[in-house]
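Action item from last week, closing it out:
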Amino acid sequence: MMKKTFAALIALNFLLPIQYASACDLDGFGLNHYYVPGQSFLVPSGPKFQLWHPSVSRAPIGSSDEVAIKYNSPPSSEDLILTLTGTQGIELSEETIKLDQHKGTVTVRFSLNQDGHQTIKMKLTGKHDGKVNNHFSILYVRAKEAEQ
């Protein structure tokens, strides 16, 4: 009887950690995010400079249009600048926008002059803890089809 109890305790010692490890499998691939150094709460991540906008904007050829872009940066960031660069077929009303708040929405006005693959490249630049940080994003612009 003692041997069976001892064997059962040894089996439980091996099975319980396996059950616990499978319960901690957060991403479905056998990796627990607390042990992955890049995602661990022990390793601090860098400051987050972010831009949100539609991936594609449709604009009529030859007339002006606008798109709203949300931005976010750490509260302690300073000298925020949004730099815009358009391809050959896009004319921007402003190429550099100084941002006064660490989060908000800015409206970008542009005109589409020719059809084809046109883009607006955006670069959010700011200082955080004395270091310059950049975040890049691309907005694709396509011509609106003629209304019938």
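Closing note: The mean pLDDT is 79.
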